[in-house]
Amino acid sequence: MNEQMKYGTGGVDKKNSEGYSDPTAYQALTNIRKEDKTFKPLVYICSPYAGDVEKNTERAKLYSRFAVMERNAIAFAPHLLLPLYLSDDDPEERELAFFMDIVFLGKCNELWVFGETITNGMQREVEKAKKRRMTIRYFTEDMEEVTTCN
Questions:
Q1: Cβ atoms of residues 98 and 121 within 8 Å
Q2: DSSP of 54-114, one letter per residue?
Q3: CATH number at residue 64
Q4: Calpha distance 47→60 (Å, rounded)
Q5: pLDDT averaged over consecutive 10-residue blocks of the chain (150 residues)?
Q6: Are 56 and 8 in the same domain?
Q7: 74-76 and 42-46 as β-strands: parallel, antiparallel, unpaired?
Q8: pTM of the predicted model over 0.90
């Protein structure tokens, strides 16, 4: 029996363990699967990169994990991805990376700013998010949310 015939929506088997059609159980399990699909905002992780790159990279990983595991969000931290193929030391490549950051930012639902230090690059991202009237949330380095008067 092919997989399309065996499984309906969401991989729930339409038949019971003995091979008989069981529409009641199928519908109940399908409804449970649908309830598991809650909205998760795509959040742009904004934190320092330059300076102590090793430490800042590890912090960005922690912030991303926090967003996913603790706040039920989909985290995107471009400063973990772009340095893999663009040099932060080359001014042209840095500007290209910033341009790409802003494109990525436009695809996100929210901007999450981490840490007490706001670098020039972070400030540019915050300003762009404000112009777009995006939700901006601020967190300490220890991932405690702070409220602001913006």
A1: yes
A2: HHHHHHHHHHHHHHHHTT--EEE-HHHHGGGTS-TTSHHHHHHHHHHHHHHHHH-SEEEEE
A3: 3.40.50.10400
A4: 7
A5: 41 72 79 71 96 96 97 96 95 96 96 96 96 97 83
A6: no
A7: parallel
A8: no
